[in-house]
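U., I forgot to send this yesterday:
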Amino acid sequence: MTQTRILCVDDERNVLRALERIFLDEDYEILTASSGEEGLEMLSGAGEVQVVVSDFRMPGMNGVEFLKEVFKSHPETIRIVLSGYADTAAVVSAINEGKIYKFIPKPWNDDELKMTVAKALETFSIQRRNDQLAEELKRKNQELCELNAHLEQMANQCNCDFMAQHRSLVHAAKILEQLPFGVLSLDDQGVLRQMNREAALMLRLDEKEALGQKLPLALPVPLAALARELSGGEAAHTVQAEGGRLQVQAFRWSEAGDAGVVLTLTKG
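Result:
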């Protein structure tokens, strides 16, 4: 747990002792300095100081000048100024310069001073929590931006890969349709998976109706019987089909757990 530290700055020793007595019953570490210069030196080496209470009228650096320096080096520290009534106008006009949280006139009321310090500590805690939340939000936003960028990159890559594969398939299909001989593809279950236009013309088949059909429904009976015979590997044979005599060549294929046979058809 962070130690609560309050720095009291006044050039009068009896005032500092009075301030120390006010907070005897509180779980605060009270630091004291007799000048603004000494207060700045103490701030630089005392660890985190949540609240600074400073007198206004001091020789050399006055309270507002001191608190302006505190704001520059420790902007999170809550700053309170004490002053006699004679200095009220000067202090009020300078409050914004030192980003002062509260002005307390001398002589002060002990209970009011304790309440003011307690509220200052609460304000410090709220500010610190807000800073932590802002930092966490910034970090989360950064992580989200990085994740979005990564996902976008992956999506673009996948899209590029998909488009490349799609173009390759379209290109291959166009080439298949332009071949001067028939091409059929059957899987290991005897289902017709592919047939080019030349094969459909040779066999006088409707490509849409034949694709997805299983032997012998997919092909003429003689060719279906031959396909079974040739499905074991590379081989060649002649068969009589509706379009005449056909030379049939079989090629076995297997890839990534998938397998089947490709048949090429030529007239003759």
